[in-house]
């Protein structure tokens, strides 16, 4: 049986490049879905779950980190490979902390994606060699202490990301299929937990935490 993959990146050139490599070299791999944001990934996965999810870490509406958390919450067997332009420790920590089994830099993705998919499918981790030294240094043993230091739930983080991206409460409610009252309640909880009550402060916090990019 072929390894079923869902590929998500909001840049079509990245998706097309990875897709071309998989179609050319991945005889045992088939792409069953493509998406441009995390919200689309969850909808596709609900109807047709994949063996491997390849997710851009910085997607609109729902980033790769939060998408991974929700995929694993829905199905603990979900296996995710994160795609990223970032080779710094913070992003790698957040990806593995969310439950991702792989982390591949976009600059080397076309060279590594086949090996990465097969490794993760077999139950192993796969990290771009350039950033694998982070694991050797032993940070996996310390990130648990940092986990959820803000106290925000996965849903609250998703809503904060959308708030920082400029979506209104009504738009967030429609995207997440929630009532307007529920979104307002989440907004109040976010502001109280972070002790921030200005939109500008929330946006700065979201950028600092890597939820959105400038």
Could you give the topology of this structure?
Elements: E1 3-8, H1 12-25, E2 29-35, H2 38-47, E3 52-56, H3 64-74, E4 79-84, H4 89-98, E5 102-105, H5 109-121, E6 126-127, H6 129-136, H7 143-146, H8 154-164, H9 169-176, H10 180-194, H11 199-208
Parallel strand pairs: 1-2, 1-3, 3-4, 4-5, 5-6
List descriptors:
2 domains, Arc Repressor Mutant, subunit A, 214 residues, globular, alpha/beta, 14% strand, Rossmann fold, 6 strands, single chain, six-stranded parallel sheet
Explain what you see:
With 214 residues, the protein is α/β, with parallel strands linked by helices. The protein has two domains: 3-144, Rossmann fold (3-Layer(aba) Sandwich), CATH 3.40.50; 154-208, Arc Repressor Mutant, subunit A (Orthogonal Bundle), CATH 1.10.10. Helices cover 53% and strands 14% of the residues. The longest helix has 15 residues, at 180-194. It starts with a strand and ends in a 6-residue tail after the last helix. The model has no long low-confidence stretch (mean pLDDT 88).
């Amino acid at each position: 049986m072929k390894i079923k993959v869902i590929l998500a990146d909001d840049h079509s050139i990245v998706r097309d490049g990875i897709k071309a490599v998989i179609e050319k070299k991945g005889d045992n791999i088939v792409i069953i879905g493509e998406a441009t944001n995390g919200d689309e990934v969850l909808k596709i996965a609900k109807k047709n779950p994949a063996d491997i999810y390849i997710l851009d870490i910085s997607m609109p509406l729902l980033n790769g980190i939060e998408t991974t958390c929700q995929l694993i919450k829905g199905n603990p067997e979900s296996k995710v490979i994160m795609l990223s332009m970032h080779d710094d420790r913070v992003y790698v920590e957040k990806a593995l902390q969310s439950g991702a089994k792989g982390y591949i830099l976009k600059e080397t993705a076309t060279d590594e994606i086949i090996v990465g998919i097969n490794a993760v499918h077999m139950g192993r981790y796969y990290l771009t060699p350039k950033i694998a030294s982070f694991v050797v240094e032993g940070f996996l043993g310390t990130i648990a202490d940092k986990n959820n230091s803000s106290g925000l739930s996965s849903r609250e983080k998703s809503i904060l990301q959308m708030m920082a991206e400029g979506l209104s409460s009504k738009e967030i409610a429609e995207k997440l299929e929630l009532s307007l009252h529920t979104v307002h309640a989440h907004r109040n909880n976010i502001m109280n937990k972070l002790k921030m009550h200005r939109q500008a402060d929330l946006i700065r916090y979201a950028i600092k935490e890597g939820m959105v990019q400038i």
